[in-house]
Amino acid sequence: MKEELLQKINDRTLVAGVVGLGYVGLPLAVEKAKAGFTTIGFDVQSAKVEMVNAGHNYIGDVVDSDLAELVKAGKLRATSDFSFIRDVDFVAICVPTPLDSHQEPDISYVRESTMAISRYLKKGTMVVLESTTYPGTTEELIKPLLEEGSGLVCGRDFYLGFSPERVDPGNLIYKTKNTPKVVGAVTKDGGEVISAMYRAVLEGEVFTVSSPAVAEMEKILENTYRNINIGLINEIGRLCHEMGISVWEVIDAAKTKPYGFQAFYPGPGLGGHCIPLDPYYLTWKAREYGFHTTLIENSMVINDSQPEYCVDRAMHILNRHKKAINGAKVLLLGVAYKNDIDDYRESPAIRVYKELLKVGAEVSYFDPWVPSFKNMYGVSGESLPELTPEVVRGFDLVMVTAAHHNVDYAMVQKNAVAIFDTKNVMKDITPRENIEVL
Ligand SMILES: NC(=O)c1ccc[n+]([C@@H]2O[C@H](COP(=O)([O-])OP(=O)(O)OC[C@H]3O[C@@H](n4cnc5c(N)ncnc54)[C@H](O)[C@@H]3O)[C@@H](O)[C@H]2O)c1
Description:
15 helices; alpha/beta; binds nicotinamide-adenine-dinucleotide; elongated; Rossmann fold; eight-stranded mixed sheet; N-(1-d-carboxylethyl)-l-norvaline Dehydrogenase, domain 2; 15 strands
């Protein structure tokens, strides 16, 4: 089985499958097709399937013409019909891993897509989970589901592994293609062929580790590391504010140390489908071992309270203008979870929005990337169509909540009564009398 698969990888006769055509899956499917593999994308959303088959791109990190050309050349197609799993030799699972209403892992997408794959799994297929999840998922959940559904045996009839996705949407240097990849598989042979497949597709180095659990844990470590360091800097930021010290200047000074320090920045909280959620997967799993991840949980307490902290600071700014927050007109600049992207999942800006509504503010937003958003933290909204001096003058407070580059901040400074910049994106704008920084 191993030799046959290695041969198919080398001569590009291997057919690749990607389940879940979102921010992670679509770029991955495009890279596989670009590397010469006929690729089939699977998604339960028929709208996405139709768009891919029409050559229409909907993910920022995919080049429109790449997708259109690959579809036209017959190298890439999409379907909702899982019976085509029979046609693939490699399948990557890239479905969501959110939290449920009790902040516990919602593994249902992984379970359902695995069961759908298991019904059509044929001998000699490689299955790789890419969704971020708790350590143990691949061997404890996926392996038995695949074996029961297919009647095949892992290691003998098919290979199974975990390879965490590291895509950083909007990153102009590191894309799916050139980001190093980690692979951990259930058997040694599995690790070898799955790694060979990624090497055939990607430019980034591929590191093979000894088990799926190591790969699952290293991904959670990456994201928890960010979560904790952001928690630390948010706490230092609050203390600096009390002490009248600029945390931004402190970070710039600390950054001059050429080793042992990596800069993280304060902000209105954590956002996106990864950093705010993944540590909960770990703390949930840790409880099975009677283990308390105290440091991680403390950091989440700080980060989770950052939107309320920002609203509290906004209230003090308005207070200085003899204005109550109840009834104040507040304009949020940016509701995406980070700069220059259209993704607003778990966006802290929307939590700020919600907190402002709670205390009676009249909230509007402008975001050139997010024309509207629906039901995030129970809030929906539509962006103002444009940001003009008249619009800015109509608000009691402008809060910068995402550091987008395509906003005219100099114009905002000239016309706003008061500005609360939670991202320090206006650092080079003068004069600064009406600007307060987080
Ligand atoms: N977005 C990121 O920046 C990022 C980065 C690294 C890792 N991840 C991880 O990658 C995984 C996917 O994230 P994403 O941002 O691509 O999510 P996404 O919501 O953009 O895409 C997931 C896709 O899976 C589809 N899907 C859901 N259930 C399915 C099923 N049963 N069968 C087939 N398709 C199904 C959805 O319709 C959707 O198109 C998550 O575990 C996430 O934590 C995301």
